[in-house]
Amino acid sequence: MQGTILQILRDPRLVLDTELTSLVESRIQLYLDLLLKWNRKINLTAEKDPDSILKRHVFDSLQYSRALKPDLRVMDIGSGAGFPGIPLKILFPGMALVLVESQRKRCSFMETVIRELGLEQAEVINARAEDIPNKQEGQFDAIIFRAVSDLKQCLALGERFVASGGKLIVKKPPDESTDQLDSSLSLKEDISITSYQGLVSSLLVYEKCFT
């Protein structure tokens, strides 16, 4: 499996410009081991083998690195099993990460991953995004979503947490419209990304103007 992880990390479609250390590889391996163990008890992913999880979820998650910098304050809303937040945190250890998930069992899994991998500046909030206290508003350089809801709902859920000049990043399928979106965020970048299997979609980067 180590060889497959390294193959994923070196895939040119990810455009990873960070130094790939053995620690990144070993942490991804441990993350997969924990996910497979927990997947036997609770439903974290539909995929049950490490190769499928790597190629669908880890590869997909690392695409977000194209719109992020290593030392940002990031909130991942609707984290589930930790995608895309945990692979990004492994890649960028200096990132301050908050994982938001409403299901307690999934939160317990992510808390175990953080502890077992020794990830610093990472925490889990067990809540729906709508119920997170106002003190978190405007505190993050980037809000990220993956497979949570439609684009309009993602903007509505995430915009209050974005700091001035910060970003909201969401994956959009090709057939979803970006028209008639009522938001304080403006679309700054549309990054074309390709899944491991070759399916093309977009990584939309919205920005909150300085106030």
Structure annotation, total helices = 6
Question: Which superfamily, in CATH terms, is the homologous superfamily of the domain at 2-140 and 156-163?
Answer: Vaccinia Virus protein VP39
- Round the Cα radius of gyration to an integer and report it: 16 Å
- Distance from N terminus to C terminus (CA atoms, Å) equals 48 Å
Report the β-strand fraction as a percent range.
15-25%
Low-confidence segments, ≥5 residues, pLDDT <50?
Answer: none
CATH architecture call of the domain at 2-140 and 156-163: 3-Layer(aba) Sandwich
Strand order of the largest sheet: 3-2-1-4-5-7-6
Major β-sheet, in short? 7 strands, mixed
CATH class of the domain at 2-140 and 156-163: Alpha Beta
Helix content: 25-40%
**Beta strand count:** 7
CATH-defined topology of the domain at 2-140 and 156-163:
Rossmann fold
Structure report:
The protein is α/β, with parallel strands linked by helices and 211 residues long. The chain has a domain at 2-140 and 156-163: Rossmann fold. Helix content is 32%, strand content 25%. It is built from 6 helices and 7 strands. The protein has a 7-stranded mixed beta sheet, with helices on both faces. Helix 1 crosses helix 2, helix 1 runs parallel beside helix 3 (50-62) and helix 2 (22-39) runs antiparallel to helix 5. The radius of gyration is 16 Å and the shape is globular. The model has no long low-confidence stretch (mean pLDDT 90).
